[in-house]
């Protein structure tokens, strides 16, 4: 998939929407983030899609010094930007089974945003567009089958998660829309 990353002006409607979501949904205590810039993939916004964040491994400087994707096998970020999401790359041992995990909670997605062999204070989240289709709410681990997606419920809603997540089981129902570049403080790498 060919794409071009475009730097969003801070006055654009989409910048304001993503920025508001990023800051209001940064929920992990004793941590904070500073949004540095937002890039979008040309012609990807679909008003029917719901916004989510996806954290993954980055092994290049895309989003912080470069707008060109790399060809490194270990750069999951560029592989997703170039080829879209793939269920084949998801882990079978995840809480709700193999799927593509995302969240409205930016700080939850941040847990999975890793810089691989890259010394940078900047981190990158993928802004995703999600079509949940036939969605099922789940209170505990498992894959319910016969649905397009799962909404993992929080403990406050009778579930087992601290922060909500959306799991998509059909890669055609989630697409990368752009990137959020940010710095973080108070975070202990795992």
From TrEMBL:
A family per Pfam: PARP
Domain PARP catalytic: 76-142
GO molecular-function terms, A-Z: NAD+ poly-ADP-ribosyltransferase activity
Coiled coil segments of this chain: none
SUPFAM superfamilies hit by this protein: ADP-ribosylation (SSF56399)
Protein origin, superkingdom: Eukaryota
InterPro entries, per the entry: Poly(ADP-ribose)pol_cat_dom
Record protein name field: PARP catalytic domain-containing protein
Organism: Penicillium malachiteum
């Amino acid at each position: 998939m060919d794409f071009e990353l475009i730097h969003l002006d801070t006055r654009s409607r989409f910048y304001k929407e993503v920025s508001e979501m990023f800051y209001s949904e940064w929920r992990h205590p004793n941590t904070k983030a500073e949004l540095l810039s937002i890039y979008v993939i040309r012609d990807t916004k679909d008003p029917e899609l719901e916004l989510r964040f996806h954290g993954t491994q980055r092994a290049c400087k895309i989003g912080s010094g470069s707008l060109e994707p790399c060809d490194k096998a270990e750069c999951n970020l560029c592989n997703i930007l170039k080829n879209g999401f793939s269920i084949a790359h998801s882990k079978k041992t995840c809480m709700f089974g193999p799927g593509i995990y995302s969240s409205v909670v930016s700080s939850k997605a941040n847990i999975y945003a890793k810089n691989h062999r890259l010394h940078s204070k900047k981190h990158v989240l993928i802004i995703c567009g999600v079509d949940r289709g036939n969605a099922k709410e789940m209170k505990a681990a498992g894959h319910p089958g016969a649905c397009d997606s799962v909404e993992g419920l929080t403990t406050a809603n009778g579930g087992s998660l601290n922060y909500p997540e959306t799991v998509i089981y059909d890669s055609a129902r989630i697409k990368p829309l752009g990137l959020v570049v940010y710095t973080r403080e108070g975070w202990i790498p795992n």
